[in-house]
Structures are given as structure tokens and as C-alpha cells.
Predict the structure.
Amino acid sequence: MNLLTRLYWTAYLAYHLRPQARYAFRPLAHIQRDQARRVQQMVAYAYRYVPYYRETMPRLGLTPDDFRTADDLSRLPLLERADLQRDPLYFVSTAQPLSRYLHLRSSGSTGAPVSVYWDAAGIFLTRAAGERSRVIIAQVLGKTAGYREIAIVNPGGSSQCIREFSLAHSLSPPGVALRWQWLSLYDSPADNLARLNEFAPDVVDGYSSYLEMFFAYIEATGAPFQRPKVLTYGFDNLSPSARRMIEQGFGIPTFGIYRANEAFPLGFECEQRQGYHLNMDLYPLRIVDGNGKTLPPGESGDVVISNLVNHGTVLLNYRLGDLATLAPEPCPCGRSLPLLASLDGRSYDWIEIRGQKIHPMALHGILKFEEGIWQYQVVQRTPTEFHIAIVPMETCNREEIRAHIAAKFAECFGPDIRTEITFVRELPRTAGGKVRAVVALRRDPPSQ
Ligand SMILES: [Zn+2]
């Protein structure tokens, strides 16, 4: 990246950072005005540059003028994950060459991999929006800059890609300067604890499922522990019992951040920690029933979002795959951004191979890059035996997939690991209608 480009994005970030710290407290009418302006801009952009909207809107007799507020977005067809899987480039803007976008690949906890392309402006806006939760954390820490943070991540996963992309495009950005270290989700708690003690972070961020196991390890062993002042988590849910252990047992306040590769940060917890304040100006969100009809606050249903930030893959009226409920009452903290009271259905099963606990992201890491897969489910049958059911795309080469996955499993988990791969039309669903992508040994199989 040349210096001029990096200067440009550094200035862009600085400009967009300024209003963020107090943004959540702006009057609701102000936030709704911003939201409406972004809706109009994004629909006009999609209509002009994104093949899917360029074809779909005229077919439905819609023009950009039909979209004044976020409510109008529901006039577009409800997009499903499968639509994005079927033809990812159909949703990508042709305004820039593909090579300019950041490509993120994820499968979430449901085992259905999707590709999302982000443009640089989108990435920097999400970084600016992160300031809304950072000010809350800074308050707990008693300092706004120069604090130390450790992120326990999936190596090569989205968090790392996003950070590398923004570092390559900017100079050390103002306001968010902090000392940073990555740890791998696949390393043992003992190794990561040693690294953490050495680095002595103020903040630790990671997958709830990893943090839960990590703190249980510290509690059980009584190992020396350089206590961070704040814990942040996302990607999956922190169980109430783990939260109690970390907050009351270790005295560390925890803050959830609601993230998805398709839109981040979708929301963040405030000091009250009664749910996620939604960044509605950037990502209008509604809760729908099985028919796509909007449900009132207090009722649980599917999360449908529109991304008004990303000019790469443009997703409007998209079913994200999470189950959630909007809070009927505003949060007592005084922030105007509405509250998501509960977020269900994001959980990960750990697997154990030869007594070693392995985070399921290791399995997702293998399968999500496999071309030709709609959806998968990995069931651990014995300590060294896995059954992988795959819903294939028509175009896929089954023998190639079979050989590739077997080789990857052996490479990652040892040569004695056996995989049986079958191709199916459909995967079993839980009572809540979701597919559990990873089912570990010693757990009941998912209800059929
Ligand atoms: Zn609040």
C-alpha cells in the first residue's frame, strides 16, 4: 500500500472516530435520520453496482426511490445464507475489482460456509464503530489509550485478516493505539496462561467457549494468574455459570460484543449488561417469524440484518442465522441504541482427542475452505473416528473432497484419525431448527 493511500485511510478513520464515543446517547430521532440516510445511499449504490439488486429490483418494480427508511428494506426478498453460498459474486459490487476487497470466509456454528467481501471504507467504519464499546471498556480501565490487549483467536481467521488488512491500509491509527498480542485458540490453557502472564494484558478478548475452559483451568489448578481488568467476548455465548465464575470468582467484568462476518460489530454490552445495544444506524435489524414477518419486541425469532456499511458484498434484508429477542424496554443506561435482550443458538462443542481438548474452530477451519459444500456436520464417534456428513453442491467433486478432508484431518490431528464421509441431502436439526455443525463424543446426538 502506498503512503498516500495509507494517509487517506488514516484520516478517514480519524474523521469517523470522532462522533463515536457519545453516539449511542444521541436522541433516537437523530440516529434514525442517520439510518434513513444510509439506507437511501446503500440502496442506490446496490441498484447501480450489485448484479443481484440490479436484476431483482426492476423485476419487482422497485426503484431506489421506494426506499426511504429501514422499514422499506423488508420490501426486498428475504436473503438466505444459501443464496449467498450459491453465487457469492452475485452480491458483490462491481464498482471495484475483486482483488481490492478483503475476503472473509466463515461457517459459523451451523456448518454452512459463506464468503463475504469487504471494502476498505467498510472495514474502517466498523473500526470506528468499535469505539462505542471501547469507551465503556476504557472507563473500567481508567485509561483511553495505550492499554494492553490479548486476543485469543482462530489463527488465520477473520479477526486476524481484518486487523492485517487495516494495518496494511493505514498508519498507526489515532485513538485506538494499544499494545496487542495474539494467542491461538488451539494452544493449551497452560501455554496460553504462561504467555498471558508474561504480557500482562489489561483486556483479554476471545471466544466464550475458549475463555470458559481457560478460566475453569485456572480455577482448578490454582496456577498463578496475572489478572486482566476486563474480558470481552464474542462469536459465541458465555454461559451464565461461566460469567458468574469469571466476574464473581475472579472479579473481572465481562462485556459481550455481537459480531458476525456479515456485519460487525452488530452490538455491544454496556455497563448494565442486560443485552446488546444494536448499532442500528449501520445495521438495521429486525426479528422475524418463520414466514419472514417482523415480530414485536419480546418475541423470539430469526435475526434479519441489512448491512449499510459494506460496499463489497451488499447484504440487505439477510437472515443471519441467529435466534434473538429485542428488549421491550429501553436500557436504563440512557443509550438510545435499542437493546437485543437475548441471543440464542450460538454454541460450540469442544472435542477431545487423546485427552487433549480441541476447539471446534479447528474443524471449521478445515471444512469452511472446501469448495462445493453447502453444509456439513462432524460427529465424533470414537476418540479417533469422525463421521462427516456433507450436503454437496451439484458441481462438487466428491472424491476430491473425500481425499482432501481425510488428509487434512490426519495432518491436523494425527495419522491414526479416521474419517468417514457421506454425502446427504439434508442434515439433522435440533428442536430449535438449527444444525449443530460439530457434535462431540459423549454427548447425545442432536434431536432428529
Ligand atoms: Zn445500556
Q: What stands out?
A: The chain has 13 helices and 19 strands.
